[in-house]
């Protein structure tokens, strides 16, 4: 991830502009709906910029050091907070390169209405996952109102043209002024209508998914509409794959009307995901919860922890890749790096392990790495994968480090059996991965240069989208 110091410096100046001041409803929306997602630092930064926009005239330039001092935060924390505000559409950042750095214009955007927020697939799903179902229901009840008692009534409200009339003369006289006003607000409208909350899932195989549901009574227009947005949101947040998604979609079909019940689909996925408790909390998420502010800090802390536990650089790269990547994505990347492709039986094998075992994704990825990279198998054998997965479940291996330790044990057993069969007359030295050798004789390279480059590239790609947003 690019350093915050490469993007902004304390001496860089900025101007801050308001598109609209926050009213009482906006304040509630920001506090109750946005704050759980963006965190306290980003929320404080938003309020600080809002006050600066009121105190200083539009043309006043302010140094970032002023904000850092007022909020008592460092530059990395500021950059992380700014990125979060940008991601949820509360801030637009415009930058211009100058001789000694950059000049910025920060445009504060109004929050969406509570109804828009709670009906948006991405925002509502993130909030639900953050605060839990009970608190989420309370917020929905707070921001909604009951219209059930209007069912026996008819809307008799009059329209605008029923009440107001304007002469052609008045329209013609004021037309030039109207045109000027429209032009003035057009640019503002274009800015405020842009949304940063967009989900793009290149890893979700829509061609394969549509093949899975082709026999279901679903209209193509429904698939490409709200259903697609919902699926993209859940895949992005939970890493739900095509086969799992097919199961959820089938459960949410009304076979009388041949329609997808989006609300029920969301409930099925959320409750099943959180009810299974299949995944333990990853070390990366645990570190985030313990107060480390930026992703860079979390990753650095994680790396240093693994180094203190005597893991090699190559082992650390594998562990981090296993923690950050969904199993199908990991499998596809490894196969492509080896010059192969994911066969249909391999896909089904991994999906079966994901759905039926209690192994976290990181452990499943370590299993894939063991078979395809360490053992150099050309493809995954279903029986072998199932046997190993069953063994790991029974041994309660729930972290990639534990899985890696198990793999080292396999390698030592293989070395012992090989030496025993060859007898004392055999002089050929067996080449083993670094972590399979004794501490006194770590000589061999555990992973090839190409494989090291692959894992480095995978870690880079995992953060690419966030880097592009801050570029």
Automatic annotation (TrEMBL):
Belongs to the DnaB/DnaD family. It comes from Vagococcus silagei. Residues 8-267 form the Replicative helicase loading/DNA remodeling protein DnaB N-terminal winged helix domain. InterPro entries: DnaB/C_C (IPR006343), WHD_DnaB (IPR058660). This is Uncharacterized protein. Residues 409-449 are annotated as: Disordered. Residues 414-426 have a biased composition (Basic residues). Residues 332-404 form the DnaB/C C-terminal domain. Residues 427-449 have a biased composition (Basic and acidic residues).
């Amino acid at each position: 991830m690019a350093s915050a110091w490469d993007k902004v410096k304390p001496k860089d100046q900025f101007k801050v502009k308001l598109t609209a001041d926050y009213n009482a409803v906006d304040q509630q929306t920001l506090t109750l709906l946005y704050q759980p997602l963006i965190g306290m630092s980003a929320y404080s930064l938003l309020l600080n910029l809002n006050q600066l926009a009121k105190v200083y005239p539009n043309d006043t330039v302010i140094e970032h050091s002023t904000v850092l001092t007022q909020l008592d935060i460092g530059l990395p924390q500021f950059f992380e907070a700014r990125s979060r505000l940008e991601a949820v559409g509360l801030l637009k950042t415009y930058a211009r390169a100058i001789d000694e750095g950059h000049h910025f214009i920060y445009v504060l955007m109004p929050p969406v209405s509570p109804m828009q927020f709670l009906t948006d697939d991405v925002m509502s799903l993130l909030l639900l996952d953050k605060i839990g179902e009970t608190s989420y229901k309370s917020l929905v009840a707070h921001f909604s109102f009951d219209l059930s008692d209007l069912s026996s009534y008819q809307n008799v409200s009059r329209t605008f043209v029923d009440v107001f009339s304007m002469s052609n003369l008045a329209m013609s006289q004021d037309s030039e002024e109207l045109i000027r006003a429209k032009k003035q607000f057009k640019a503002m409208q274009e800015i405020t209508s842009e949304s940063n909350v967009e989900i793009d899932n290149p890893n979700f195989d829509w061609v394969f998914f549509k093949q899975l549901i082709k026999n279901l009574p679903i209209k193509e227009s429904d698939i490409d509409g709200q259903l697609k947005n919902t699926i993209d949101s859940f895949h992005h947040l939970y890493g739900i794959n095509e086969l799992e998604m097919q199961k959820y979609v089938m459960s949410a079909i009304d076979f009388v009307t041949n329609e997808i019940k989006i609300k029920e689909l969301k409930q099925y996925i959320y409750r099943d995901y959180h009810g299974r408790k299949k995944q333990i909390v990853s070390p990366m998420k645990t570190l985030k919860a313990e107060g480390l502010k930026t992703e860079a800090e979390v990753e650095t802390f994680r790396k240093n922890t693994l180094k203190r536990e005597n893991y090699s650089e190559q082992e650390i790269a594998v562990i981090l890749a296993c923690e950050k990547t969904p199993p199908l994505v990991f499998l596809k990347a490894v196969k492509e790096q080896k010059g192969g492709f994911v066969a249909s039986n391999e896909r089904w094998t991994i999906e079966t392990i994901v759905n039926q075992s209690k192994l976290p994704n990181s452990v499943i990825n370590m299993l894939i790495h063991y078979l395809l990279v360490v053992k150099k198998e050309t493809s995954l054998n279903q029986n072998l994968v199932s046997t190993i997965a069953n063994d790991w479940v029974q041994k309660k291996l729930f972290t990639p480090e534990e899985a890696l330790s198990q793999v080292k044990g396999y390698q030592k057993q293989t070395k012992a059996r090989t030496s025993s069969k060859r007898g004392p007359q055999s002089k050929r030295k067996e080449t083993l991965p670094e972590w399979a050798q004794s501490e006194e004789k770590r000589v061999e390279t555990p992973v090839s240069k190409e494989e090291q480059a692959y894992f480095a590239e995978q870690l880079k790609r995992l953060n690419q989208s966030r880097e592009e947003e801050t570029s």
